[in-house]
Protein 1
Amino acid sequence: MSSGQEPEAVIKAFFDNALSGREAINNLEYLCRQTPGRLPGSQASVRAVRFAAEALKKAGADSVWLQEVTVPKWERGRESCTVISQKKTTSLSVSTLGLSVPTVPGGIIAEVVEVKDFEQLKSLGKENISGKVVFFSQPADNRLINSFSGYAGVVVFRINGASEAAKYGASAVIVRSATQATHDFPHTGVTRYQDNIPKIPAVAVSPSGAETLSSLLKSDPRLKVHLITECRSFPDTISWNVIGELRGSLYPDEYITAGGHLDSWDITEGAHDDAGGCVQAIEMIRLFKSANVKPKRSIRAVMFMNEEISGTGGTTYAAEAMKKGEKHYAALESDRGVMSPRGFGFDAEGERLQKLSELSSYFRPYNIRDFDRGGGGADIGPLKSLGALLIGYMPDTQRYFDFHHSANDTFEKVNFRELQLGSAAIASLIYLIDFFDL
Ligand SMILES: [Zn+2]
């Protein structure tokens, strides 16, 4: 197929090919099953980097290279949380939050203060909190239609809860997992300590564990928890972004990127977050190649390292692009899971947004209709200052937080057709933006 082909035919070729091939599924299976727990600096993350580079070569990239990134290194150890109430003990499912400090050897045994938010924490004050474990029990607001909005409302307790509680002398925090789910999987994620505030251990408790703790506290407000976390921080280390490129035929020095992040939390296969996004970027290269579509601009699949802890993959990529004077035309991120594609969010307005929205007509045969303002992503955010149009891939996200940062995010939770449809949608959008110079 030549670049003289009608866009509709190119898009159909992308979808046909994506839905006929096993490449995406095989790549996803490898990342999930052979490199689970791809925390930055881990052995699994190094294996994932090697695999992703090979997969990009196989997909037909003209060049593939690794870009060095400085990353933090943190490891979980043994962890447990036992409630001691009226002479009986109840074990809760917990996961230490990333970058947390450990408990003292043998753990902490202390009373628990349940709070809904930072206001309540403040009103209780030092006299009620000092020496105790603070339990942030607020669930995500299930009434919010956008699941990311529900998540955003409670993730602040995971991120800032430890330092906020430490200001009043708390000895540790237990945070209800940031999810709409009600299962017994704890959802981990990074926590951030403020400067000049004592660092206290922080764990997430599963949603059902949070319900259990709340109800035990109602019948026995003086109960105690025995909390053990044996995590460790190490000095920063080196890892890599993985980049594959198809050289542009007309403007080879202008770049359009699509990608996701290769790292994941240590307790999970990270299928939806975000092996799937990486696989879709590899697929984009393969789909262009197999349809023999020669882009005008250079197209890059970029798999970022360390999105989960401190985002140095994204900042390093942008800094190097800036240093080399690269013109980044557009950048797309797929990091909202690999459920069925709904559309794209564009960080644009006015006439440009109007033109981008009109691209939805090409996607109607595939039931992809939501072309709105919004989008972007943590890894591509830094490319905005280089003038890149930021684009977020928008699948249906209702189930995303059933998986996010938990051991529930496994290979078999991905529907293959949804993964394939997403790959084709991303390749098609990138093709259209390049073809029409949007
Ligand atoms: Zn992610």
Protein 2
Amino acid sequence: MHTRLCDTFGIEFPIFAFSHCRDVVAAVSKAGGFGVLGALAFTPEQLEIELAWIDAHVDGKPYGVDVVMPAKYEGSEQGGVTKEALEGMITERHRDFVKQLLARFEVPALPEGEKIESLLGWSDAGGRGHVEVALHHPIKLLVNALGPPPKDVIDQAHARGVKVAALVGTVAQALKQVAAGVDIIVAQGTEAGGHTGEIGTMVLVPDVVDAVHPVPVLAAGGIGCGRQIAASLALGADGVWTGSIWLAVKESDSEPVLVEKMLRASSTDTVRSRSLSGKPARQLKTPWTEAWDGKESPGTLPMPLQFMLTAEAQTRIHRYAHTEGSRAGELLGTPVGQIVGRMKTVRSSRDVIYSMVEEYVDVVERLADPSTK
Ligand SMILES: Cc1cc2nc3c(=O)[nH]c(=O)nc-3n(C[C@H](O)[C@H](O)[C@H](O)COP(=O)(O)O)c2cc1C
């Protein structure tokens, strides 16, 4: 499984793992892969704490940080607008829809006076706060989603010897990223959890590999076992980028009710929905996604308005998912990809990496000698 990215980063296996959970990031890097912490859910101050923890627990192994700096979002073309102006773009009909949905599922209100930060990382400014913090830690990779990172951010990363990667869902997006100076392209197929396009991994990866050659490409979307890694390398990728599979590992902080839902789900139980962020993101099908797709729905709002509209609701759903007398747990979902159908037991991160490697070795041997089938 040795590829040039193993040499670039000094890693044993070119298996990259995206997770919001620092324990998973450290565990994957220590097992020979490459953990990448998703910064979106953190304030810059919280991110500082998470990265200091990783530095203390990763045994000097390389890791990275993923930020979200969308190239385009509501108001971005006017040079960014104030939070108040953005709030004013959300209609009463939308606010009522959310209120009624929560009431129907008996989701308690937050304690009086508690405020939810509803803009977080979904903007250029939010992403920059994360970059600033991340570059003061010994990270080896900075990753951006939803468009090319600004040139000055790429330059700052390069000046510190940090490689830059970016997620894409089409060849055109990949070419833009390469033109912007990105070092590694993550070609993410529609199977993936989270924001995702319409083209399947099987079709996207070889197209992107050919278009950006010799820039290295990581295959993403629907990768959770050694056979899928072997297929990715056969398609021309230099490694794999995984996300969903880490949601149900021992080190993950996913809520128990969510882990149970994922272990029960099949590959047909996800949907691409705009109901979390305003851009299509694959996630578990729940009464929440169904309501937004239903007849009564006012329709979703563009990024970042949909997240602003629903941030408090999502906090309440998470917080009260296990509260007796509330049906919040039914509404609880998560971005997750079609690979969820293969997530059947809770394993340690190390176990996941080692079983991927073992299966990869088996399949490569089998391909070399079909008589061993
Ligand atoms: C819960 C979850 C949250 C995600 N959030 C982000 C994110 O904030 N930034 C990002 O670049 N990718 C995000 N992704 C996408 C992953 O980086 C990755 O591309 C994707 O999970 C790969 O496909 P897979 O889910 O089939 O493994 C997320 C994925 C999941 C499952």
